[in-house]
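HUMAN: I'm a chemist; might I ask for a sequence paired with its structure tokens?

ASSISTANT:
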Amino acid sequence: MTGADIIREVSLDLNDAEPGYENTRWSVELLQSYLREALTLVSRSMKSWFAERRVVELQPGGVWQEACACDEIIRILGESTSSGRLLRYLRRLEDSEEYTWAGDVDVCPASDKSYRMLSYSLSSVKESEFRVYPPVPVGAKRYVLVECYTAPTGDQSADVPSEAVPAVKQWMLFRALAIDSENNAAIIQLAGAHKTVFYEMMTLFEKEKAEEANGSLRAVQDQAPQRVSR
């Protein structure tokens, strides 16, 4: 569902979509501003819904490198082929001096044939940067599959993840009714109800995310020692 689709459905819910008199009370521009607000709130908590998987070719040496033009790297799924097929999982290490490569920045002691990637770190300074350990040898071609988050802009033509749509609509209805209440107790109460439902949904999302993270951690712990078959 696109942002434009959501705006149309919210207009219908607000009884502001009569043919020939569409968006008389709440303009498309106003509803789009509420759409942007809602997407910002939801995406900050549920970044994985707004993430893409991208293959990144690694630079040699122990340097920090940019994954892409994203806002934040959520995780590195593992070492992959150039087409994105996973070869092995990587263990995540904290961005710490303990795990900083101590040799020359552009040198790895391993040869291309003996090199084996083991782990990665995400930068604590710039959220779109990462590095792998041990560093990639000069001349070697190595890739990782990265999950990247880019904050939604609220563009009407952009697709909104289906999981996010119900909460987004609740926030938009709350904002539209709140600004239009004119001290009407019934409308104020209705607006408050939409706001309450929105935050109840967000609480549920957070709970589901925590449960999923625990499950993913257990899965990674089970799989990390293994190499994914070619």
About this structure: The chain is about 35% helix and 15% strand. Residues 3-46+163-213 form one domain. The CA atoms of residues 7 and 14 lie 10 Å apart.
